[in-house]
Design goal:
The protein is α/β, with parallel strands linked by helices. The protein has two domains: 9-262 and 467-488, Aldehyde Dehydrogenase, Chain A, domain 1, CATH 3.40.605; 266-448, Aldehyde Dehydrogenase, Chain A, domain 2 (3-Layer(aba) Sandwich). The chain contains 16 helices and 23 strands. The chain has helices at residues 54-73, 76-92, 94-104, 109-126, 129-132, 168-179, 194-206, 220-227, 241-253, 276-288, 307-318, 340-356, 389-392, 408-417, 431-440, 476-482, and strands at residues 16-18, 20-22, 25-27, 34-39, 44-50, 137-142, 145-153, 156-160, 183-187, 213-215, 232-238, 257-261, 266-270, 298-304, 359-362, 379-382, 399-405, 420-421, 423-427, 445-448, 464-465, 468-469, 484-492. The protein binds nicotinamide-adenine-dinucleotide.
Length: 509
Amino acid sequence: MTEVAAPPAEQAQDVKRISHWIGGRTVAGESGRTGPVYNPASGRQSGSVDFATVEEVDRAVQAAKAAFADWRATSLSKKSALLFRVRELLFQHKDDLARLLTAEHGKVFSDAQGEVARGLEVVEFCCGIPELLKGGYSEQASTGIDVYSIRQPLGVVAGITPFNFPAMVPMWMWAPAIASGNTFVLKPSEKDPSASVLTAELLKEAGVPDGVFNVVHGDKVAVDALLGHRDISAISFVGSTPIAKYVYETATRNGKRCQALGGAKNHMIVLPDADIDMAADAAVSAGYGSAGERCMAVSMIVAVGHAADELVGAIKERLPKVKVGDGMQPDSEMGPLVTREHRDKVASYIEKGAEEGATVVTDGRETAPGGDGFFLGVTLLDDVEPNMDVYRDEIFGPVLGVTRVDTYDEAVRLVNENPYGNGVAIFTRDGGAARQFQFDVNVGMVGINVPIPVPVAYYSFGGWKSSLFGDLHIYGPEGIQFYTRGKVVTSRWPDPATSQVDLGFPQTR
Ligand code: NAD
């Protein structure tokens, strides 16, 4: 992870400091360690984010711990009313949040607005927490005995989030966590941390009690401090597969409940009977939207039989129309990548693909806007083979590959042999083929003529295989389950007829 002691002198006056949020107020970091935050469209450093020490993480956890008893005891109707206020305030400030996303992540403003809207859907789902926390009741399980189940919060829980959805992914975690009665510590990505701070301010303004929601910024030091903290009961993580695996193994070794969502290599299968225009439009929006920096982005197209030539031609034809530029420019359709290093790494895959034998149909290096921004144009690689690095690696940028196969079976085998299993899509006009595909494929989220099948907020989100470590998917009903534990009560009351006080019950019933 990059680290700077201080911003260059000529930039210093424009560089804002981004600090922790602990116990309902801003707390300046004291470690002396910071990370740079860039505006990817200009390439200039816009912020400097404090990196927390172990002690600072502990302070946040203690604030959360102190807030837990009262928060847990707050009635469901009060929590629900408060979540409605949170939702309203976030909605009022949705464009402020979106502007921060564009400024630090680089995604175009309309896409940033979409991110906030999708995150808000999770908050809206959580407004129904009284319904979601209903337990079960079995009257007369045995004579005079009733059995019922309730769900209770875990305590202090923590979320560790990636750079690519700086507002939405935290909402996937904090909304169900606090709705369920837990208190929360967020460690957002150090690359674009400002949305988390604005979220904290808005939650306070809405009336969320101090300490219920805390933010600590930082790197591995902060993450490790959370993973090892004895007062944290559960960890939610979203990020790359190697870190997800590390987080899952460390958290569970330390006795914590953990859900750790990892990386992806999402395939889009196009059968010969597909609507090619529909598939090409979908490939372009799902492959290059948000500069390919989405865990549900389509990165490999598997063209079956004679679909390939027509499809590659249709995608190629669309690419010159994808306007790459500063995300705040209204006509921009794709923004820059998050950092210079990431842009350079993604660009290196174009060369690598050519060396490995793929056909470079469109080379994004040739169409990137000039200037210091971290831009790369859209790239299309054809004839990609499964043994190539461009097939195997999660590139996480605007590089879309096409693999050609002869049959449906070959296409499904490719997907099922892939170590990742986040999202997949099939394009076909044949309902029977689509139905067979949903039965056959070993992937957690499946789209049928839908390229990015992110589940709506009242289902849960999660991949299979190396895309998720843990059992429960995130947000939706499984999110509530993750942040609560079940308790079953077996009860018997003395027969009222035997009461010392005459209650008016008959002696025998
Ligand atoms: P990342 O794994 O580098 O970082 C994620 C978080 O882990 C950050 O908060 C970061 O500070 C922390 N971290 C990084 N290195 C660490 C280390 N060595 N030890 C402890 N903590 C560390 O991921 P990223 O680059 O921010 O995000 C992109 C990745 O996230 C992609 O792989 C993408 O597929 C994945 N992602 C997955 C989903 C999903 O739902 N499955 C959603 C969004 C992003």
